[in-house]
Amino acid sequence: MLKTFPKGGVHPAENKVTASKPIETLPVPKTVSIPVAQHLGAPSTPEVKKGDTVKAGQLIAKSSAFVSTNIHSSVSGKVLKVDKVTDTSGYRQTAVVIQVEGDEWDESIDTGKELKKDTGLTGEEIRNKTLEAGIVGLGGATFPSHIKLSVPKGKKAEVLIINGAECEPYLTADHRLMLEKGEELMVGIRLLMKALDVEKAMIGIENNKPDAIEHLSSLAGKYKGVSVHPLKVMYPQGAEKQLIKALINREVPSGGLPIDVGTVVHNVGTAVAVYEAVQKNKPLIERVVTVSGESLKNPGNFMVRIGTPVSELIEAAGGLPDDTGKIISGGPMMGKALNSLEVPIAKGTSGILVFPENKAKRDKPQNCIRCAKCVSICPMGLEPYLLRSASEREMWEMVENERVMDCMECGSCSYICPSRLPLLDYIRLGKSTVSKIIRSRKQ
Is beta strand 324-329 parallel, antiparallel or unpaired with respect to 300-305? Predict the structure, then answer.
């Protein structure tokens, strides 16, 4: 019997139409806008100014706090300005805008294709390389990876979990990475194991990717302590807490972290980025992005330089269809609609989805019928109908007491609701408000 998490979950139509599409390298754009906050925590501090010339891989914004990380130029050229731009979340934030001139890379980066397996670096040196290279979680959370590798005093990592679930519909970037960069992934996993001082790593992959399971299983035998585990197809299997429960049957406590149950979770894309950072001295300056949608002429998976406008990806996928109703950054369950095609691709951008008009509009909400479907499918055991009602009425104490901060915003409740209530919208409002209240108590 395939492993999965025991509580809640849904199974939306998978729509993995790009699963068989090999990764294409997108041409370097004429201009990039590279935000200095592409991670959870404090924004990085710009290190360049208007008129400076930069190379691909050069540091352009430095980590400004413990929960922060570095930002590097993804291109070579001239800095046009350091100014506010709109990012994929719809907010305006500081970015370094660079006019591309050629494609000159920093001399320290090894651009060769040869696989490098061995390293003489210590665990601490691997963690430092991860910080220097600006590696963050590429599964969407964008948590600075060097922090996950820094196990707090009194805690002990026993097993490394690698997230290859990619449970969001449409997205296939991780799937293609597992197929096309399997060896680099394995070396990256071994580096993460060394940094954490663990002897065991488990790769969880949903069973709708049999080719990736077969490929990585054949490679795992050459890498001590690494094993591959097929998982039942169930959303949100790729969430940290659900993946941990499925693979090692441990439950992260409310308000807790994976390290509290002896584990650390990293995405497959993050592991490949760690390989490139440690073995090739390559910072995180590009990533794979799935571009998909029913009406697109050429949906696919593209290797994209960070800072590339979304419009360039849509052009590569055949242009914007006439029936377009909505464009989403990320997956359809947790992604957010874009209001411009000129927003830049960031480290956390896993997909760009183009939905036709007939799938872009929400149905009109009806009254709650008390069916409790939202309760039965919540993977965190919350009561979404109650959180929505309390948030709508601004009953913030109740919202906090009902554990709104445990919500991972997976969207399963909104997906399943027969009344088409905007449950997640109100829960996000409640979570944001409660988060501010909690922070104000600590000041």
Answer: unpaired
6: exposed, middle or buried (Cβ count in 10 Å: 0-12, 13-18, 19+): exposed
Residue 362's pLDDT is what? 87
Which pLDDT does position 140 carry in this prediction?
79
Which pLDDT value is given to residue 40?
Answer: 87
The rounded average pLDDT for each run of 10 residues, N- to C-terminus, in the chain (443 residues) is 93 96 97 94 94 98 92 98 91 95 96 92 96 93 93 95 97 98 98 97 98 98 96 96 97 93 97 98 98 96 98 97 95 93 96 94 93 97 97 97 96 97 96 95 82
Surface-to-core class of residue 264, CB atoms within 10 Å of its CB (0-12 exposed, 13-18 middle, 19+ buried):
buried
CA angle in degrees (0–180, nearest 5) for 100-106-109? 130
Name the β-bridge partners of 61.
46, 71
Pairing of strands 77-86, 53-54: antiparallel
Helix (H) or strand (E) holding 287: strand 286-292
Beta strands in 48-196 (DSSP E): 53-54, 59-62, 71-72, 77-86, 92-100, 159-163
**How is residue 139 written in tokens?**
């599964």
Cα–Cα dist 183/189, whole Å: 10
Structure tokens at 108: 């320290």
For residue 311, with 0-12 CB atoms within 10 Å meaning exposed, 13-18 middle and 19 or more buried, which class applies?
A: middle
Q: Across the strands, what pairs with 83?
A: 95
- Quote the tokens at residue 183: 């060896």
Look up the CATH architecture of domain 123-280.
3-Layer(aba) Sandwich (3.40)
CA 384 to CA 192: how far, in whole Å?
36
Cα three-residue angle 223-286-336, rounded to 5 degrees: 105
Reference 334, options 177, 164, 142, 147; nearest CA is 142
Phi, psi of 423 (to 5 degrees): -60, -50
Report the alpha-carbon distance of residue 9 to residue 202 in Å, rounded.
Answer: 22
The Cα–Cα gap between 164 and 228 comes to 10
pTM: 0.95
**Given this model, what pLDDT does residue 143 score?**
93
CA distance linking residue 37 with residue 91, whole number of Å: 11
Rg of the chain's alpha carbons, rounded to an integer?
A: 21
At residue 1, the pLDDT reads 78
Q: In the prediction, which pLDDT does 31 show?
A: 98
The SS3 of residue 418 is coil
Domains of the chain by residue range: 123-280, 373-442
* Alpha carbon distance 54, 101 (integer Å): 10
